[in-house]
Structures are given as C-alpha cells and as structure tokens.
Amino acid sequence: MDWVTALPPGGDRILNSCLVLADNYRKTPMFLPCPKDDTAKDTAIMIWNRVISHKGLFQNIISDRDPKSISELWTNLCNLLGTKLSFSKSAHPQADGLEERMIQTLEDIIISICAYGLELKDSDGFTRDWCTLSPALELSYKTSIHSSTSKTPEMLEKGWNQRLPYDTLKKKTLLMCIQKQEDLR
Questions:
Q1: 118 — alpha (psi -120 to 50), left (phi > 0) or beta?
Q2: What are 152-163's pLDDT values in tens digits?
Q3: Which of 22, 36, 94, 151 could form a disulfide with 17 if both were Cys (CB 3.0 to 4.6 A apart)?
Q4: CATH-assigned architecture of domain 2-142
C-alpha cells in the first residue's frame, strides 16, 4: 500500500493523489484516486468500500511509514479484521517493491496516455482526466503479461482473461485479411 501524490487534480478537482494497492501473489493492482489530504479514517473507509467489499480481507498489508498507515485507527482496524500490518523500512523499500513498480508504471501511463496535467475532451465535451481513466488504466495493467509470472494478473486472479475491444478488432482484422487473400486468388 503506497500513495502517488504528485498528480494533477482530477475527477472533481480535489483528487490529486492515488492509493496504489497490489496483490503480491497475483500482481493485481488497484488504483484508487483520492485527495492528498485524506485522513487515516478516509483511507480505511475507501479501502473497505472499494476493495474489501469486492475482494475480501487482506492477510497482510505492507506499507511505508505514512502517517495514515501508522495511525491508531488503522492499527486497531487491522487488528479487528485479523490483518497483519507490516512496515517497510526507509532504507529497504524493496519490501513494497511491487507497489513502487506499479506506481512507476501508473505514472508512465498517465504521462503517455492522459497528457500529464492536461484535460482530454472527447467530441461530446466530457472530460477524460487521469481519475476518469483510472479503471481503464488498472484494466490495462491487469491484462498485461507480468514478467515474473509469464501470465496476466487477470489470468492468475480469475483463471481467464477478460475479452477486450482489442480482441474483437484483432479478430475482425484477421477475418478481413483472410477474405482479401481469398478475393485475390
């Protein structure tokens, strides 16, 4: 569990941070846009509503020593839920290395796809900022093959990969190429 804090405001303009959670076994990410000044209580509620209610309880949470993570409320909540709370040492960030790598990837995606710091508008005038696109960014990560497992996080989590627009386009393109070859014969 770690936060990316140097992000442009997005969503309703107060979302300028992103909580990154990772399942270390499946390499599955969760990108949760949030205000930088969220409290430990806000973070606990967000994790309950958007993570635990969908995926279940964590066995172990590894976090840096962010004030939100080491608060009495957070410690008590983890004790109540039977979740072990571990902290990485500042001299040993490898303990939460998966999150650090996901953060680097998330920042790269935001820079390249979302035109960092700019709002993207479609033909209907809807704003497409990084917060709006965060579910798609998460899906992109979850459906990419991970080097350490040679599988997608989605395959490890569900046993199958989601069907994506790319899959449909790829199939249609292949069928069009086959038809074109037959027409040329």
A1: beta
A2: 988 988 898 888
A3: 36
A4: 2-Layer Sandwich (3.30)
